[in-house]
Write a structure and sequence with these properties.
The complex is a heterodimer of chains A (about 350) and B (about 190). Chain A is about 30% helix and about 20% strand. Chain A has about 350 residues and is an alpha+beta fold. Chain A has a single domain, classed as Catalase HpII,  Chain A, domain 1. Chain B has one domain: Transmembrane di-heme cytochromes, Chain C (Fumarate Reductase Cytochrome B subunit). In chain B, about 65% of the residues lie in helices and about 5% in strands. In chain B, strands 1-2 form a two-stranded antiparallel sheet. In chain B, a hairpin with a 2-residue loop joins strand 1 and strand 2. Chain B is elongated, with a radius of gyration of 19 Å. The chains are: A alpha+beta (about 350), B mainly alpha (about 190). At the A-B interface, helix 1, helix 2 and helix 7 of A face helix 1, helix 2 and helix 4 of B.
């Protein structure tokens, strides 16, 4: 081989190497292995576990739960806002789950935290509408970075059981938006039952009706059972599983009902921040009734092996510009994938359901 | 087989390059969407599923086309081991193109997710709702994806080696084709 063809060979080999390297670099960048640091689902879970400890085999958040089933009886009024089959007049089966905030599967019920309801509505056309609702109309933070900081700042000090003021103070100074939620939680009635709480969509969504008109909507499930509150001054006196026990006993006596109220955004309403409530009069449509007829433990019910990802939506309902929706979806997905690979642990409600059956 | 064309069938070449772009985009979308909890996540996810199903449909068209139209002979002076590696890697590429969308579809089925492809279009589940199965398939989806990317890069490097270093017409057989007056057009 002549020196010049040797040089040409080296050049060609280098060119091929460079082309391959461009693809490798691009791939590493797309995967987030190089370049700007981004927050993944795993990062959010790490922050949650930093706050509340690691509980393999369980949901990473809203861990203590109870399955339920029932129906959603749509009256057809929601069709004015969305073409989703679930909102057309008719009745469809529902799988649901009540839970309390936090990652501890055996946590006490007497805590001033989210009371939550998750729902899965499956229509005959194969589409699903999944929801993860909380008993507060707003969320403490508006985006994923702030959520990670919130988890880190509010980690309970083992000595006091309360967040470390040294971490909390700078966090609150940097996040004035959290104040609205704190004030709400301090003032609002903490429901004495899963059955008498109003559950809110937290985020805004886009509803599109059959005519193609799109509106931004938040929704809530308003209970028929009258709201009464827990004694917030003596929450620590509440038996560990009081809310779960109450719901199991209540359901043995008869069904519980909620009305799905669709709330249409007014011009100027904030749609991309779950920290901001919509105030004043709003067009509200009662779209139907959720009827809860049975509860069961996570071991025997249908809810445990489901991811109640609120971005799983039917045709006629879409995501809004709220960045928290993407964060919730990714985090739930990472939590789901992790626990899928672990053996599920026993639920706090299992023995309560068994006792009731005896 | 002196009558064999020195080039892949034009239709096969068209599908090859269309799928090359789609598969590459798919791999980048895939690793990108799992890396972030930001607003890009649902956007990429909404691209990932229809693109995956489109790749599955295309490869199911492409495979019989490839079997029917055949492949040009490899250069006679190519060491046998390289010929074996070439054939084996092509079988692996086809197998992966079929497997990846099916693993994704099966994984969503096992996870109890609706296999929503586009607005209003949901595919049926192909596996039972089983979290252990979901976890295994979810991991497999990642491992096969990374291996697939490595395989594609090896395929690309080999193609460039043929085109730039050996200059033996192999790269041409999947790109612009040989000229009509090329001696290989009449068999060699």
């Amino acid at each position: 081989m002549s020196p010049s063809s040797k040089g040409a060979l080296a050049l060609n080999v280098a060119l091929i190497g460079a082309i391959v390297l461009v693809f490798v670099d691009g791939f590493a960048w797309a995967a987030g292995w190089i370049g700007d640091r981004r927050i993944s689902g795993g990062d959010v879970i790490a922050a949650i576990e930093y706050n509340g400890g690691s509980h393999p085999g369980y949901r990473r958040a809203h861990t203590k739960g109870l399955c339920f089933s029932g129906t959603f009886d749509a009256n057809g009024a929601g069709a004015a806002l969305s073409s989703a089959e679930a909102l057309q007049r008719g009745s469809i089966p529902v799988i649901g789950r009540f839970s309390l905030a936090g990652g501890n599967p055996l946590a006490a019920d007497g805590r001033n935290v989210f009371h939550s309801m998750a729902l899965l509505l499956r229509t005959p056309d194969g589409q699903e509408w999944r929801m993860a609702l909380d008993h507060t109309p707003i969320f403490p933070v508006a985006d994923v970075a702030s959520f990670v900081e919130l988890q880190r700042a509010t980690r309970p000090d083992p000595a006091t059981g309360k967040p470390d003021p040294a971490a909390m103070k700078p966090f609150l100074a940097a996040h004035p938006e959290v104040k609205a939620f704190q004030e709400y939680m301090a003032k609002a009635v903490l429901p004495s039952s899963f059955a008498n709480a109003t559950y809110y969509s937290i985020n805004a969504f886009r509803f599109t009706n059959a005519a193609g008109t799109t509106r931004t909507v938040r929704w809530q499930f308003a209970p028929e059972a009258p709201l009464t509150g827990l004694d917030k001054a003596h929450l620590d006196m509440l038996p560990r599983d009081a809310l779960f026990k109450e719901m199991i006993a209540r359901t043995a006596r008869g069904p519980s009902r909620w009305h799905l109220q669709l709330i249409v955004a007014n011009p100027g309403d904030v749609t991309d921040k779950a920290t901001v409530a919509w105030t004043g009069p709003h067009q509200t449509i009662d779209a139907g009734t959720l009827v809860l007829t049975a509860v069961s433990s996570e071991e025997t019910g249908a809810c445990r092996d489901l991811n109640f990802d609120p971005t799983i939506l039917p045709s006629g309902i879409g995501l809004s510009d709220d960045p928290l929706l993407a964060a919730r979806s990714k985090t739930y997905s990472s939590s789901f994938t992790r626990r899928a690979g672990e053996d599920p642990g026993p639920s706090a409600a299992a023995h309560l359901v068994r006792e009731r059956a005896r | 087989m002196s009558c064999r064309s020195p080039d892949f069938h034009p239709a096969l070449r068209a599908v090859h390059w269309l799928m090359a772009a789609m598969v590459m985009a798919m791999l980048f979308i895939g690793v990108g969407m799992v890396s972030t909890a930001g607003p890009l996540y649902p956007v990429l996810l909404a691209l990932h599923r229809p693109t995956g199903i489109a790749i599955l449909i295309l490869v199911l068209i492409r495979m019989p086309l490839r079997l029917a139209t055949g492949a040009p002979l490899l250069p006679a002076d190519l060491p046998p081991i390289q010929g074996t590696i070439a054939k084996g890697s092509h079988i692996l590429l086809y197998a992966t193109m079929i497997a990846m969308p099916l693993i994704g579809w099966g994984m969503l089925s096992a996870g109890g997710y609706p296999v929503r492809i586009t607005d209003g279009f949901v595919l049926p589940a192909i596996l039972p709702h089983d979290l252990k199965l979901y976890a295994a398939l979810r991991l497999t989806h990642t491992v096969v994806a990374i291996s697939f990317f490595a395989l594609i890069l090896a395929h690309l490097a080999a193609a460039l080696m043929h085109g730039l270093i050996r200059r033996d017409g192999v790269l041409r057989s999947m790109t612009i084709g040989h000229r009509r007056d090329d001696p290989r057009m009449n068999g060699d």
